[in-house]
Amino acid sequence: MEVDLFTALAAGVIILLLFHYASKKYQYFLSKPIPCVKPSFFFGSSGPLMARKRDLPTHIRMMYNTFPDAKVIGFYDFMKPIFMLRDPEVIKKISVKDFDHFMDHSPIMTGSMDDAEVNGNSLFANSLFALRGQKWRDMRASLSPAFTGSKMRHMFELVAHCAQSMNGFFLAEAQAGKRLEYEMKDTFSRLGNDVIATVAFGIQVDSLKEPDNEFYRKGKEILNFQSVKGLVKALLLRSMPRLSQKLGLDFFDSAHSEYFKKMITDNMKQREVHGIVRNDMIHMLMEVRKGALKHSKEEQDPKDAGFATVEESTVGISTHSRVWTENELIAQCFLFFLAGFDTVSTCLAFLTYELTINPDIQNRLYEEIKETEQSLNGKPLCYEVLQKMTYMDMVLSEALRMWPPALVSDRFCVKDYVFDDGAGTRFVIEKAQTIWIPTVAIHRDPKHYPKPDKFDPERFNEENRSQIDAGAYLPFGVGPRNCIGSRLALMEVKLMVYYLLKDFSLEPTEQTQIPLQMSKNVFALKADKGVWLEMKPRTV
After folding, report:
1. What are residue 513's DSSP bridge partners?
2. Which among 537, 409, 386 has a CA at the least distance from the CA of 483?
3. How far apart are CA 352 and CA 183, in angstroms?
4. Do residues 485 and 405 touch, judged by C-beta distance below 8 A?
5. How many CB atoms lie within 10 A of CB 18?
6. 202: left (phi over 0), alpha (psi -120 to 50) or beta
7. Sheet (strand 181-183) strand order
8. Helix intervals (H) in 115-227
9. Which residues in 104-130 are b (16+ Cβ under 10 Å) and which e?
10. What is the distance between the terminal CA atoms of the chain, rounded to a whole angstrom?
11. Picking from 197-201, 250-254, 422-426, 516-520, which range would have the lowest pLDDT averaged per residue?
């Protein structure tokens, strides 16, 4: 009886201590002159999300809309205070002008450590996304010449080959009398996988003809965070990065990491031995290793790939030349793999959905494709011609506004920062605090985009695009820490849409969910029942 009483008292004391600790944590924003989303015990502001009462895009938008007149608000991710920026001018100031205060991604979200603490064997921690401080500056400077317009021209044929192969597969299926009804996220994940295989890993695979090929299977396995083991690991890496490092945890299992590492190192050795030159990412990384990758004097205008292209900023970028290890370079291929497998396929799935439910827009885009084909006079499509397709760019820009694959951008305060909006709101954002830029909410804010839930490419026509605030259109992030691969992603999406619509019309089926509902079971942009469409061969 005494033991039971002691156990009950001990449990009560622990609960009280935890409650006291949480209560102290939830007092952070009381000292700040900004409104805060009301937290609940332990889960903070994330309770509805964790209870699966809301999907992530809706949750972000609901927090964003809680205080519609505020430029900055606070909320709690579990017990971690987060600043959410709502004002485009504030976003530009923090992300660009005051970049030296906010140059890193949050280690809570990335699992990355300080420069000296990064695990040299970890592919994710050594990727450009997760690197921090001077090492990030040096890596960004080393890689940026690989993603210019001129380099995209070199890679164009590799990506176009994948798009043409996709088209050939669907045409053959149609000729065999099969109905072409597909879940588009899965379909485009396979195509994205093939593009990354050829562009970043130097191999050719066809994941439509060979759906269970090893490269695709390994990729699916490594990105499976939905298992219990995967979810626990992701939660630990996100909430306790230092403990995770001591436990030897990484986002990617060592066996899978070794598989991809060996593939790249073997490829590099073969090229060195036989003098093989192929215009892909491995060649670029080999050039980086030799210090031979430099910016060309003839680089194109920063918007040469379309309105959504982000300009490479010189703010905060290093001029220091660093010698990179093989593992550090291989880690960048992994980052491209992640982006190609998920981000591009997400964009394509939602873009084709909008074309399906907006047949007038689809028809107008098809007419532009048909006119482009006629202008080529039998010659193959090239990079320059693709970029001149204005309506294609308008449609893609609008798809990225409505359905940004990266729902949120984050920044980590590396030194105390005095926030002053010039209108009486002044406070300190302390070192090690996290900033959120809620892209998905800003893109659906009627203050910036009238009738924001309407798919309207005319927002991005020649007349209207000049009125769009750069701080309110952020599909690839903002400032020096933006997405380095925006040109490659836009080229890939445009090529896939071009070849798909050239020979097929997209139509809804019994399985097409209209309107789409977002999944509450994943912390990403994903349709609850998938994006099901039918491709019907064109008769003319």
Report:
1. none
2. 409
3. 11
4. no
5. 12
6. left
7. 181-183, 532-537, 504-507
8. 133-143, 149-175, 184-200, 214-222
9. bbbbbbbbbbeeeebbeebbbbbbbbb
10. 86
11. 250-254
In angstroms, the CA 46 to CA 79 distance is 10
The phi-psi region of residue 399 (left if phi > 0; otherwise alpha if psi is between -120 and 50; otherwise beta) is alpha
Question: DSSP for 202-223?
Answer: -----TTTSTT-HHHHHHHHHT
Arithmetic mean of pLDDT, 485-512: 96
Q: Please enumerate in sequence order all residues whose Cβ is within 8 A of that of 148, keeping only pairs 6 or more positions apart, or say none.
A: 295, 296, 299, 300, 312, 487
Helix locations, 26-66, DSSP H:
47-50, 56-66
CA distance linking residue 214 with residue 207, whole number of Å: 10
pLDDT band at residue 461, thresholds of 50, 70 and 90?
Answer: very high
The 3 state secondary structure assigned to 270-291 is HHHHHCCCCCCHHHHHHHHHHC
Per-residue model confidence as pLDDT tens digits over 59-89: 999 999 999 999 999 999 888 899 999 999 9
pLDDT at 275: 86
Q: For residue 418, give the 3-state DSSP assignment.
A: strand
Q: Write out the two tokens for 182.
A: 């597909």
Q: What interhelical angle do 359-376 and 390-402 show, nearest 10?
A: 140
The pLDDT score that the predictor gives to residue 112 is 45
Is residue 302 over pLDDT 80? no
CB 299 within 8 A of CB 149: yes
What are the C-alpha distances in Å from 359 to residues 281, 349, 381, 455? Answer: 37, 16, 25, 12
Taking the C-alpha atoms of residue 536 and residue 507, their distance in angstroms, rounded to an integer, is: 7
Helices (H), 107-148: 107-110, 133-143
Residue for token digits 């590396």?
A: 414
CA 510, distance to chain mean position in Å, is 30
Residue 121's nearest CA partner among 248, 264, 290, 267 is 248
The reported pLDDT for the residue numbered 113 is 47
Query: Is residue 3's pLDDT more than 70?
Result: no
| Dihedral in degrees, nearest 10, Cα atoms 22, 23, 29, 35 | 110
Compute CA distances 24 → 18, 36, 75, 412, 451, whole Å. 10, 15, 15, 22, 42
Mean of all residue pLDDT scores within the chain: 87
- What per-residue confidence (pLDDT) applies to 296? 62
Q: What is the C-alpha to C-alpha distance for residues 69 and 358, in angstroms, rounded to an integer?
A: 33
What span, in angstroms and rounded, lies between the C-alpha atoms of 349 and 496? 11
C-alpha to C-alpha distance for 293 and 511, rounded to whole angstroms = 48
The token duo for 186 is 């899965």
